[in-house]
Amino acid sequence: MEDAAATARQRLARWIEDSREVFALLPELLDGVQKASAKTEHAEREAERLRRELMGCARSWPTRGTRRRAAAPSTASSRSSSRSSSGSTRS
Hints:
Helices cover about 90% and strands about 0% of the residues. The protein is mainly α. The chain has a domain at about 1-60. It is rod-shaped, with a radius of gyration of 38 Å. The termini are far apart.
């Protein structure tokens, strides 16, 4: 019976010592979590700001369809002018 009690005391003493070590680490761990949370929050705000900025640029940027329509007449006119300047006509 005394062996069991001595073993229990030793286990309890180890558990208490391990708990002290863990509790000593908690402030450092919590500080790391708070810093990581602050960095994450800052990154999310910055990403949202950039998203809004990008959407503003996208609204002011011409669409592909607009560019094609604007480019089409100049391409057609350059083809007709190159045909007439080459002097060859097809019948």
